[in-house]
Asparagine--tRNA ligase (Caproiciproducens galactitolivorans), 462 residues
Amino acid sequence: RTEITELYSNTAELGGKTVTVCGWVRTIRDSKALGFIELNDGSCFKGVQIVFEADRISNFTEVTKLNVGSAIVVTGELVLTPQAKQPFEIHADKIEAEGLSTPDYPLQKKRHSLEYLRTIAHLRPRTNTFSAAFRVRSAAAFAIHKFFNENGFIYVHTPLITGSDCEGAGEMFNVTTLDADNPPRKEDGTIDYSQDFFQKHTSLTVSGQLEAECMAMAFGKVYTFGPTFRAEKSYTQRHAAEFWMIEPEIAFADLQDDMRLAEAMMKYVIQYVMDTCPDDIAFFNQFIDKGLVERLNNVVHSDFACVTYTEAVDILKKNNDQFEYKVDWGTDLQTEHEKYLTEQVFGKPVFVTDYPKEIKAFYMRLNDDGKTVAAVDLLVPGIGEIIGGSQREERMEVLQQRMKDFKLNEDNYWWYLDLRRYGGTKHAGYGLGFERLVMYLTGIANIRDVLPFPRTTGTAEF
Ligand code: 4AD
Ligand code: MG
């Protein structure tokens, strides 16, 4: 059995030879004694044309009755067709139907809306758009591992069930074995977790960062790549309840090192995906986002911009009349502001650094001004924030004070504080939202269309 992608990469060699391909019927048409099937197997963007003739296969009539969506195995000669649009076709000697389909198969040859296709997440990977999106997703994931591996990082696995809230944003999904409707309660009315499986309150992780910091204090350079969960109510095109994050953490490093790493990683992954998925990217460039290839090329070949939060706010304040949410020093930047900065002002990816300490997480290193922290967000056109990172607070007393300010219970973080007690160093890291990266690479506007089975508020159908 040969995959269709191999037929394209080895066409000259395979010309005139007999090959066997397996796949799903995209289209089928026939006239009297001759028929054509467009077959896809998902191994690449392109399909292959199967030509079948009454006097060459034994089950011609049966094959003409195949419905779109059927799974078939075809053996035949690979015939070079240098004059035609496709460089070759397969002249079938044998066509076996492994799995028939029915006339009500939802993916008939016509354009379906993305909204409709979301309702059939189990079938949509067989369409051009989703086939391409999930191949790009796979290539991007591989590129990330390749990048960090080539740069000497250790890949670490951090827990999904956790007893601490990394971001302190209170957006965690609870995990408990207690009866949700009637949990045991202590005298003061609070839930008694002593009978819970973990004997304490636990949640699904919002970030693997704190554990990644532990690993960085042993390996120097580490990264995580795993699912994270946020019960965010924001019903936006870029928020999912379950999404994947890549979180590198580097010891003996500051914010500048962090930004250098982020920029190198972004460029590497973009270049890798453009090199390995040219047909998929060309498809997105033609049908989803006309400026995609030009934009990605520019990103690879120019330096990212960099401004401080304070500078960014000065720019935005001058344009407050354009925004739904008005900006002032101290406010968090909304998507509209992020997009304005990266699309209208800089026209490329931009790092925004040194945010007010009140609007960022407790672990970020306090700057000498006492007002801002060594945070960095990377904003990109079309999306807004794609990366959030920081230099971490390595000074014990400052960290303890920050935890007090955020009303965090030190008992839950004793191990985190230990890192400052035993050989703490300056260190930094960031989190890249993987879905936002895939959106950026494909031009797809909605996060629901880059996750195979998206979970957002109100949807966990599949
Ligand atoms: O900015 P965030 O919240 O940063 C952290 O979680 C840090 N602990 C990362 C670190 O320093 N190790 O999230 C990081 C990125 C965001 O920039 C965004 O791309 C993505 O994760 N993200 C989401 N993606 C999809 N759906 C959501 N609900 C997301 N929330 C964050
Ligand atoms: Mg963030």
Summary: Residues 128-150 form the longest helix (23 residues). The chain has a mean pLDDT of 95.
